[in-house]
Amino acid sequence: MDHTWIARNAYDAMPPFAVIGGHDSDNDPIYVGRAFHNGDMLPAKVIPNKHQAYVAWGGEEINKHDFEILTGHHYCWIPASGGEVPPHALRVGQTSDGEALFIGRGYFQGSLTPGKVHPSHGCLYLPYGGAEHRLDSYEVLVQPETWVNSSGSNIVPGTILAGHDCDGDAIYVGRAYHEGDLLPAKVIPNKGCAYVPYGGQEHVKYDFELLAGYGYGWVPDSYGNVPPGAVICGRTSDGEPLYIGRGHYNGSFTPGKIHQSHRCLYIPFGGQEVRLDSYEVLVRS
Length: 285
Known about the structure:
By secondary structure, the chain is an all-beta fold. The chain has strands at residues 4-9, 20-23, 29-37, 40-47, 52-57, 60-64, 66-71, 76-81, 91-94, 100-108, 111-118, 123-128, 131-135, 137-142, 146-151, 161-164, 170-178, 181-188, 193-198, 201-205, 207-212, 216-222, 232-235, 241-249, 252-259, 264-269, 272-276, 278-284. The chain has 2 domains: 4-142, no CATH class; 146-284, no CATH class. The strands form 4 sheets. Strands 1, 2, 3, 4, 5, 6 and 7 form a 7-stranded antiparallel beta sheet that branches. Strands 8, 9, 10, 11, 12, 13 and 14 form a 7-stranded antiparallel beta sheet that branches. Strands 15, 16, 17, 18, 19, 20 and 21 form a 7-stranded antiparallel beta sheet that branches. This is GH20307.
């Protein structure tokens, strides 16, 4: 997944949009980081006021002066336990033998401290007070699919680029309601609006939602099929799920709705709803 990690040392300033992980027992803010130790890439708690980062390893809390800071938007924390992680959990790295490690956090001795979720050990390990401590219940950092209300030409950080119009204008992934359906939309900031396909026509929308986040990609498919991990954008008024696809048409690369029962992708273009049998599908790993 595509997340932004910024290299820092203990005396550097925090980068913009650094992700807060919690607080120390003295209320110093803790940021989400990661660092190498003995061949493992480990989640780290970074405490700027102490000019230190710390990782949990081998029963100890290990100080680190060089590390990376996670930056970005649209993260949240989801409760979990027993080494489990929810969908879209943030994988920070891995052990030297290849096991994935995730970022979790838990309450300990008056602190809210981030650490490593080690699935095969069935727990979260956090660094605190010189030792590595085990917690069976914790929260996991995730970045779910995030839909952000918008209008006109407004674009938020992390918005998903879908393609381009025939005049070269950038098109972003959006969605909007029309006649009881929640439909995928092509959002074109330079034109100050979005467009949805419905009932054979292209409809203009000035209020819509934008999809934001990381870890997305596009996978070829056809005839109403979608691959594993396909992103559900919305539903028809009778409950059929709609997926986000895109296709080439008249010099554009335009997103639209994959309507499985119709066995195609519909895109809004030139005032019409255009049917495409082959397309790419937006997926998330």
